[in-house]
Amino acid sequence: MKTIKYRSRGPEVRFLEEILSDMGYQVYVSNYFGLDTHHAIWEYQQKNDLVVDGIVGLKTWSKLLEQNPEVLQQNNKLLAEQDLIAFGNEYDLELATVKAVNEVESSGKGFLADGRAKILFEGHVFWRQLKQRGIDPNTYFNQQTSNVLYPEWTRNHYKGGGAEYDRLQKAINIDTKPEFEDAAYSSASWGAFQIMGYHAINLGYPSVKDFVQKMQKHEREHLKAFGEFLEAKNLIRHLKRKDWAKFARGYNGPAYAQNHYDVKLQRAYERYK
Fold it and tell me: N or C: less crowded end of the chain, CB within 10 Å?
């Protein structure tokens, strides 16, 4: 594993923070190694008779994985080369293109350290989804629900990692009506490619619950949903032409240029090519 420390960034940091969070440490799960993670590692190293330096190198990684063997059980859920080849054949895409899109547009990996599909719950989407089901969200909006049900987008309530499942369950538990579970599942993005649940029916799934169940099985299911999404949004044509800007705009929205998604896609393609 890569050695990481305070101010490091990357998927290894997220993986570390997912493990620490599952162990009960109060850390914000992201791609950034902040002070909260630094303090958690100091505490962990002290408790486990390791050198207390805040650096997560081979010895600290080894101890963490030894104590959390379940994180390795998800290895049978990961994409393989043949999955990307099959995807390219299905959509008539060059393998280098498929690998570039998988690298840039996936969220590193599709599962948390505990084996559940990665999610992000969006309270403003939940607000809209309830309205679409004939339920007035204002009726349920109060101090207790305001971190999972709100009218406008904000990142202030994001928790990351497994804590997003706590937010999802809290939304479901607001009311016993089945519409709340359906709306909550529809209001989270799922898996490696973070496909929103409300797309499920349009992508050919019989229900959002069926979509959610499939997202828990394998990254292959995430890739399948991603392909269905690209086809539904008519984005495959841009990949065939290597028009990275149009593809990035269609998939990531108008902020794609600010985040250089088109540049990242082109660079990744040239590397795999």
Answer: C
pLDDT in tens, 89-142: 999 999 999 999 999 998 778 999 888 999 999 999 999 999 999 999 999 999
| 153 vs 255: CA distance, rounded Å | 16
Query: Do 54 and 46 meet the contact criterion of CB atoms below 8 Å apart?
Result: no
Q: Order of strands across the sheet with 119-121?
A: 119-121, 188-190, 195-196
Partner residues linked to 58 by β-bridges: none
User: What burial class does residue 143 get, using C-beta atoms within 10 Å of its C-beta: 0-12 exposed, 13-18 middle, 19+ buried?
Assistant: exposed
Q: Answer whether residue 70 shows pLDDT above 90.
A: no
> How close are the terminal C-alpha atoms of the chain, in Å?
27
- CA dist., res. 264 & res. 111, Å (int): 23
Q: Residue 71's pLDDT band (boundaries 50, 70, 90)?
A: confident
CA distances from 59 to 37, 45, 54, 64, 95 (A): 17, 10, 12, 9, 37
pTM reported for the whole predicted model: 0.83
* 195: three-class secondary structure by DSSP: strand
List of residues 6+ apart from 261 with CB closer than 8 A: 104, 105, 244, 248, 251, 252
- CA 36 from centroid of its chain's CA atoms: 21
Question: What burial letters (b/e) apply to 159-173, b meaning 16+ CB within 10 Å?
Answer: bbbbbbbebbebbbe
